[in-house]
Amino acid sequence: MRALAATAYGPLEDLEFIDLPRPVPGPGHVLVRTEAAALNAVDKALITGTMRHVVPVRHPFVPGVDVSGVIEAVGADVTRFAVGEAIVAWNDVPSGALAEYVLVKATAAAAVRPAGLTAAQGAALPTAALTAAALLDISGTSPGDTVLVVGAGGGVGSYLVQLANRAGLVVLATGRTGDQEFLDGLGALHTIDYQHVDITEEALRLVPGGVDVVFDLANAGPALALTAGAARSGGRLVSPLGGPRSFERGVTAVYGGTTTPDGRLAALAAQAATGELRIAIGAEYAFAEARRALVDFAHRHIRGKVTITF
Hints:
The protein is of the alpha/beta class and 310 residues long. It has 2 domains: 155 residues, Medium-chain alcohol dehydrogenases, catalytic domain (Quinone Oxidoreductase, Chain A, domain 1, Alpha-Beta Complex), CATH 3.90.180; 128 residues, Rossmann fold (3-Layer(aba) Sandwich). Helices cover 25% and strands 27% of the residues. Strands 3, 4, 5, 6, 7, 14 and 15 form a 7-stranded mixed β-sheet that branches. Helix 4 links the parallel strand 8 and strand 9. Helix 3 crosses helix 4. The longest helix has 13 residues. This is Zinc-binding dehydrogenase. Pfam families: ADH_N, ADH_zinc_N_2.
């Protein structure tokens, strides 16, 4: 089978198309014929090696944690899925979605793809939507709370704005010039153009005293102190990227990442199929252009998700 792979840690431009044996599903796994994949920040980190001390990979390494395709074979003890079913999955590491076939764990991290979703839409869902839902879970918010979503135009952010709005939260979102209509359509009450105004100052102008929770999807480490300043005294900052445990004025930090509670991915897919949850795809590439897709993903501002179709 053809796959896009990293033969060693290095720049995205060094990725190569290679031939690999078609995987055979073992117990608890299914073999999926890939129809589409989507890109995430973790793909770049695993390819370049910035996460090698935390999550090392074996080479040749095939990136891609979001996959949408059709089950070709099932391993022993698999009763959750059947041959011929279309599924979507968050495949974690060792990833592998940028190949013609990929092994997927037959767990709650995979779900049947509803008829109302295209393959590309299905691929754009798992990591970003599951992460957004997980961050909302740990935020401690209640209906009526005000929140600031930093990085609202990206994959996770586009889902988080929608889920927060549906949870009854008042959403302020950050974006670039020209993103306002897009973010308003997702449910943001105010869009802050970070290219022309200071995010924290503008948030405090819009919500004197500060928002209840800041979701920062863009910054990590000490840089989080800047956006934490938009939270009220005793408020919270939520991030998937890690940083200090607390900030000035009693603002506390909560960190989390992708989780797969049973039934959640299936529920998100069902909502997306009916249009209740919008899937924003900012760029689509063919598999032959997958290397360029990763380079563009790393260096261009793209709203929503980047997908690759086979």
